[in-house]
Structures are given as structure tokens and as C-alpha cells.
Amino acid sequence: LQEVQVKEINAVLLTKGMSDNWESIWNFQAKPNDLLIASYPKSALSGTTWTQEIVDMIQNDGDVRKCQRAYTYVRQPHLEWKPWLLSTPGLEEAEKMPSPRTMKTHLPVQLLPPSFWKENTKIIYVARNAKDVAVSYYHLSRAMSVLPRPGTLDEFIDKFMNGRVLWGSWYDHVKGWWNKKDKHPILYLFYEDMKENPKQEIQKILKFLEKDLSEEIINKIIYHTSFDIMKQNPMAGYDTIHINIIDHSISSFMRKGITGDWKNHFTVSQSEKFDEHYKKKMAGTTLTFRSEI
Ligand code: A3P
């Protein structure tokens, strides 16, 4: 491994030595007909959550029973370092999986195994506005003992702004993937759009996957992937999976599922400080977010 890469990995993982299985991740062999769903944490990708659920339903032509049968411990293998999902070494699962495979990752773009670029594998990236991600990440960190302790919300916001959280800087993550999207088949989606107009976003996914589904099936997918329905489904939010590592009395994966919850958490001064820093970090990019809806 090049020294610079080790440095980057350690910065993203926060802890030295967690990158033990890094070589095998870096050398992972993607295939042209794989699909990768990528996001920064808490943007409605990970877990068995939203985007995965939508893609799963699309791939099963809206047949919920088939999707539920497909619920396994690692339905869509997570290309990550082992410590994240503890006993779910996504790599081994991914290698065993029949094609076409759907996998997910929180890897920042510069650490994605090169075979994905070489094989021109399709990637769906989901981004969510920074303040809502920070709030969601804070609550998950409180409830999930494998994550670094968040401290107070004020302390956590500070760590988030400085990229001192697991998976590193949100700013670099969303910008890095954004910059890659015109050079590679990447469908870049926004949580806020999915909330506002799920049909339109599902249609984008269908087009990207070169699939055609009837209006009736699309409506069924919208219904089954709505927050309320997914929250009722014990298999859809890590609630059953992470029973021992997430304290549900504190928070859960399917927490609120809304846009703008940051307003219930950030003080005016926290928000101003965040905005000022945000402007500097996001200067010069064409990537914009809606955090006011
Ligand atoms: P909140 O903590 O704000 O509620 P991830 O899956 O990447 O960990 O992201 C989790 C966030 O996505 C949580 O946000 C969760 O509630 C939200 N989410 C999951 N499924 C959702 C859905 N069907 N509709 C809206 N939000 C959803």
C-alpha cells in the first residue's frame, strides 16, 4: 500500500489498524453487470434502508414477497472494512453472490476499488444535506456503541465539520463523487428529492437500470418504501440485525425520516457557524443542496 493511501484510510477510519482487510477491498473484482449503491452514512442508503429497498423492489419487479425472501443478514453486501458491520464481512459475501450483484459502500470516491472504474460498473450515489446528516449521524452514534462516542451535539457538529468522524469528511465525500459523475455511469440522487417526489426519483433509477415497470408497480414500490411502512417492517432497518450493537431505547436506524430535522437540533449560533464553514468548504463546486424544505 502506498503511504499516502494508508494515511487517507486512517483519516477516514479514525483508528489505525482498522484497515486490516484493506488490501482485499482494494483488490476487489467488480463486474460490468454489478450495481453499487454508495453514500456517506446517514443519507438513506446503508442498513437495509431506503435506496436499497427501492432498488431491491425494482429488481424484483415490485414483488414484496420476493424482496422479503431476499432479506438476509447481508442482503446487499457492504464493501467496507470489517469493523463497521462487525460480523458481516461484505467482501466474502460479495464474492459468493451470483450475478448480477448489488452491493453498497460508504467508501469515499478515492478509495473505491479501481476495478469498479475499469469495468464501468453502474453506481447510484445518494446525498443528503449536511445538517440533517450530522443530526442523524449524531443520534446513531449515541445509540451505536461500535461508533466513536459523539460527545454533545455541539462537540459532534464540530467533529463533523472537521471530518473527524467515521468515513471522514462529508464535504469531500459528496464533492468527490459529484466530480466523478460525468466520467462514469453514476446516478447522483438527493434524499430531499426522494422525499419530495419519490415517483420521479424511482423513474430516474429505472431509466438508469434500463428497466421499465408499470405505473401500478411503481406506486407499489413508493408505498412499500415509504418511511412509515419501512419502519413497521422489522427487517428493514437493522432493528433485528443490529439488536446487540444498537440501543433502540436511545435511537434507531429508522429514526424520523424527514428533511429539515436539523432545525429541531441546531441553535441559531451553531447554524451560523456551520453555514460559514460550509460556504468555504463548498466554494467552487456546482453541487448544491436543499436544506430548507
Ligand atoms: P433520520 O435519522 O434523519 O431519521 P442510512 O440508511 O444511510 O443510515 O440513513 C438513515 C437515514 O435515512 C435515517 O434518517 C432514516 O430515518 C432515513 N430513512 C431510511 N429509510 C427512509 C425512508 N423510507 N424514507 C425516508 N427516510 C428514510
From TrEMBL:
It comes from the Eukaryota. GO terms for molecular function: sulfotransferase activity. The keyword Ribonucleoprotein does not apply. Signal peptide: none annotated. It is an enzyme of class 2 (transferase). Coiled coil: none annotated. Its main location: cytoplasm. This is Sulfotransferase. The chain holds residues 84 to 376 of 376 of the full protein.
